[in-house]
Amino acid sequence: MATSGTTSFTLDLADIMEEAFERAGSELRSGYDYKTARRSIDLLMLEWQNRGLNLWTVRDASLSLVAGTSSYDLTSEKLDIIEGLLRTDAGNTSKQSDLTMQRISVSQYAHQTNKLTQGRPLQYYVERKPTGITVHFWPVPDATTSYTFAYYYLDRIEDSGKPASNTMDVPARYLPCLVAGLAYQIASKKPESMSIAPALKQVYEEQWNLAADASREKAALYMAPGGYNDL
Asked: Within 13 A of 182's CA, how many CA atoms are on the CB side?
């Protein structure tokens, strides 16, 4: 019994759209069909980013802190910070050290009595704006040493783009979910397909749950007893 010996299956935009239209009981026939499907895919990617932590979009980066500067604007593809560390002696193989920092809320940052206090940064507040995020540090970095903010962030999923030969910026294991979601979106916009939209929605949610469950963090979780003592 022979097998292909390959594991490179993927779908480009044209394949994704054709499969989705077929599931919605229709056909991809016109340039407008392609345009509306591409728009739905881009909206679907934004929806996925609102559904939670997509591990394939986690990236790492670093930011050199400047003495006396408390706030830093990050580039627009960075959607949120999920972990932040204060690095000293960056690049020194024998002295580099990462110190855990605490992410605080806007309320906690607002209640800092003196936001101009300088020292070793211990906390950071992430301000999420329509155009990007700004990170505020407290205390404000001082000049005693060079500080680097090392962080892991959620990267925005790339747009579909115009060429039908493009592939989407998602792992292959998410393609069933993408096709199912697009089929639901297409059916929701076509009067002749609206009757099957609820069933397609259910399939889409099932595929999302399968993909999201497979992408969860696999590292061991350790919990230690503690907290408030009984009075």
From this structure: 32
